[in-house]
Amino acid sequence: MKGKFITLQKASGFFRDGMTIMVGGFMGVGTPPRLVSALLESGVRDLTLIANDTAFIDTGIGPLIVNGRVKKVIASHIGTNPETGRRMITKEIEVQLVPQGTLIEQIRCGGAGLGGFLTQTGVGTVVEDGKQTLQLDGKTWLLERPLRADLALIRAHHADAIGNLTYQLSARNFNPIIALAADITLAEPDEVVDVGDLLPDQIMTPGAVIDHIVMPQEIQ
After folding, report:
1. What predicted TM-score, i.e. pTM, was given to this entire model?
2. Strand, helix or coil at 114?
3. How many CB atoms lie within 10 A of CB 138?
4. Among 134, 138, 140, 214, which lies 20 to 30 A Cα-Cα from 81?
5. Tens digits of per-residue pLDDT, 87-118?
């Protein structure tokens, strides 16, 4: 198969100890299961994960937490995965909690090449600690810096050989934004279509920003 398609085994060659990895999904929905399983099976450690949440113990990126592969999590909440909370309390991992809207905007800025953005979310709370503030129009604003990653793992619904992607329902959450904010982006689609089968209005992520697509298991 031509184009940007690669096998899951070849995709695993991008994993390294100490990487910063963004993963799409909301409580596991929209998280690429085969790529996350391959990441776990690769044995890499000391990862920094950027994601909306850490899902559950046995779903999404939860198994990476449970198996001790993660040194830091940047997420908007961890409440559905008690193992994340336990490891945070025992200082086995570092957890940086970020308001959800702020988190996705940090990622969007990272993908757009912006230096950051101003927000009032978190002013006067622990979210403000260690951050630069500005006074504008009589109000206090936080400067939030962009987030980028070495690698982004995203789940798509359809993919063609040049990397154009669509997403299905709530899987269209963090995935399209994360696709723009990493040095290398790997996509795991549910289905593969021929180039030209996707109408331009259907394409949510253009192939220009996708580096590789993991072939569905049945056609490897």
Report:
1. 0.92
2. coil
3. 5
4. 214
5. 999 999 999 999 999 999 999 999 999 999 99
